Amino acid sequence: MAIIQINQLVKEYRTNKRFTGSFGLIKSLFSSEYVYTRAVDGISFSIDAGESVGYLGPNGAGKSTMIKMLTGILVPTSGDIQVDGKVPYRNRKEIARKIGVVFGQRSQLWWDLPVIDSFELHKHIYNISASDYNNRVNQYVELLDMASFVHKPVRQLSLGQRMRAEIALALLHHPEILFLDEPTIGLDVIAKHNIRNFLRQINQETNVAIMLTTHDLKDIEEICDRIIIVNHGQAVFDGDIYHLKKEIGGINKQVTIEFHVDPGEIAFPNALLICDEGVRKKFEFIHHDGEENSLMRSIMSIPNVEQIKDISIEDMSIEEIIHQAFVNLTQNSKIRV
Amino acid sequence: MSVKLFIHFLKIIMRSRMEYRADFLLGMVGQILGYAANYVIVWLLLNRFTSIEGWAWPEMAFLISINVLTYAIGASFTYSPMLNLEQLMIKGDLDKYLIKPIHPFAYLIASYFNFGYIAHILISAVLLIWSLGNLNVHWGVFEFTYFLFTLLSGSMLQAGGLILIGSWSLYFMKSQFMGDLYFKIKDVINYPISAYAGVIQVVLTWMMPLAFINYYPALYLLQKEENTSLLLVPMVGPLFLFLTIVVWHRGIRQYQGAGS
What are residue A278's phi and psi, to 5 degrees? Predict the structure, then answer.
C-alpha cells in the first residue's frame, strides 16, 4: 500500500530579477520582474509502507525541497502530493502525527536541558500514553545506547550522541514514515555505523517507512532498498542498487592479473583489455545475465594459468556508480526500472 | 494548545533559564534600573513644571505604569518569538515549528515565553499601586472591572505590536529595522498624547493604536473627559490582537510558498 504518492510535482521559487549595468541596482529595487527557478520539476513516485528509500542528488538538486513538501512545510507549485492519503500542507497537524522528521543540521532538542526533558515534552505534544512512552523510551535508550547521556544537558553531548537522541525523539510517537535529511552529516565512522544499524533495524522491526537524503552513499547501501536519484529537479533513476549498477555498467568487474613472466597477449571473449603492462594486465569483464561464473572460468582457461602470481577482482564502488549516474543519467533521458 | 501543555512549556523554559541564574538576576537588576530612570525623568520634569498638559505627577505615574506593565505582560508572550523570527527563518529553524501536531503560532509563543519581564512587572506594579493611592478615583465595581480590562486590552495591544514586527520578517525576511523603529516609538505614550501635534495624535489613535493602551483608558478613569465611547476602549486590544494574528498567519502561508 502506497504511503507516499506524488505525481508530476513541481516547486518553483520566485526571486526578484537582478539587473546589471549602471542603473541596475535602482532598477532591481523597483522592478516587479521575477526569476523563477524550479527546484522540483515534475517528479513522480510512490513509496509503500515499510519501504526504505534513499533520495540522492548533488547539492541544489531539490532534495530538501522535496522533504519539505512531503512534511507539509512547503506548498507545491503544481502537481499532486499525498502522504497517507492526505495532502500534507492542507492537513499539517494530522500528518505531523504520522511522520517523524530529523534534520541533520538542526536540532529539535532543548539545548540547555537533559535529553529526557525534550522526550517528556514530546510526549505531551503528541499525547502519548504513559505506558507507550515509557516502553518506547526504554527501548530506544537501549537500542541506541543512550543510557549514559539521557540525563545530560544536550549542550554537553557529542554530535553522535545528539543525533541518536534526535532520531529517538522523531520516533517517540511511532510515526509511519521517518524522514531524515542528512542524518549522518559530520559524524565519525563508528557513530555513522551505529545509526545506520539502528535505522535498518527499526525499519525492519516496526515497519516504519524511511526516506532519507544523504551525500554518504554508505548510508544508502546499508539502509535503503531503493534509490531515487534526482538532478536538476528531475528524477533520473528510481530502482535498487543492482539495477543502478547494471544501468551504469557498474556491474562489470575489473580484473587485474599479475604474472611471474610476461605471457604475451591474452584475450577473453567476454572482457576488454584496459591496460597492459606486460606482467600486469587489467581487464574489464562485461556482465551477462545468467553467466555469473563465466569470469572465473575464463581466467582459469588461459594457457599459462600456472604463471599467475596474483589476481584482484574489483567491483565498482557505489561512489563511482553514483558519480557515473549523475553524469550519465542527466544526459540521457530518464531511466525507469 | 491546551493550558496543561502550555504550563508544561513554562516549566521547561523556567528550568532552562535557571541554568544561567546569574545572567537572569543581573538582567533583572539592569531592567529595574533602566525603567526607574524612565520614571525619574518624568518626575524631574514635573518637579519643575508641576504638570504636563494638565497631568500631575501621580497621573503621569499612572500613565507610565500602565504602559510598562502592559508591555511587560504582552512582551512576555510575544517579544522573544517575534524578534527571533528573522533568525529562525535565516537558519531554517522555523521549519520545526511547522511539523508538529500543534498550531505553529501557539507552539512558537509557548517555546519562547520570556520570564525576564518580572522586573518590569515589579517596578510598574509598585508605581501603579502608589499612584492609585494618590489619585482621586472613585473605585466602584464598574471602574475596577474597566481597569482590569484596560490592563488586559493594553497587554494585547502591546503583544500585537510585536506580532506585527514578527510578521514583517515573514513577508520581507528582515525585521530588525522595524524592531528598532518600534522601540523608538513605543515610549511616546509615556506622555499624554494631547501634548503632541494633531497629526501624531491621529497616528497614535488610528494607525498605531498605542494611545488605547493607556491614554484613552486614563481619560475615562481619571475623569478627564466625559465621552461614552471611551467605554469601548477595552475592546480595541482583543480586536487588534486578532488582526495581528491573522496577518501573521498570512505571513506563514507566504513563507510556505502558498502565496506566490
Answer: 85, -95
